[in-house]
Design a protein that fits this description.
single chain, 131 residues, alpha+beta, 2,3-Dihydroxybiphenyl 1,2-Dioxygenase, domain 1, 8-stranded mixed β-sheet, 17% helix
């Protein structure tokens, strides 16, 4: 991942949760020319990386059964220096933690939250990249 995207405050990742992963892959491949590769298993099932020019820019996954949003939804991740401190600050400022800080093996630690007006966003602290 580009070092600029690892900086605190950078919008670093986009992710689609959908009930039709294959249909979404086909649609976006035709529209944007996206390529895909398998990343591994998420608790909801296989995770697919979105690639543009060989660079990983986002992902697709099946909507988890316990997800409060049943309609397909795109989400964005903003990089933060410390996910646990960020989650505490979100609550302090009137936001609501929807998914508490959670580890993603070999990637980082993230949370999903709603701001005081209810807009949903994710924050992530990436693990140091291996050279």
């Amino acid at each position: 991942m580009d070092k600029k995207l690892m900086q605190h405050g950078a919008i670093s990742w986009f992710e689609l949760m959908t009930n039709d992963v294959q249909g979404a892959k086909e649609f976006y491949q035709v529209i944007f020319g996206w390529q895909y590769s398998a990343f591994g298993e998420d608790p909801a099932g296989p995770y697919t990386m979105i690639k543009v020019g060989g660079d990983e820019v986002g992902g697709l996954m099946r909507t988890p059964a316990d997800c409060p949003y049943k309609a397909p939804v795109w989400g964005a991740y903003v990089t933060v220096d410390n996910i646990d401190a960020t989650a505490a600050k979100i609550e302090e400022l009137g936001g609501k933690i929807l998914v508490p800080p959670t580890d993603i093996p070999n990637v980082g630690r993230f949370c999903v939250f709603a701001d005081p007006e209810g807009a949903v966003l994710s924050a992530i602290t990436y693990y140091p990249q291996k050279a």
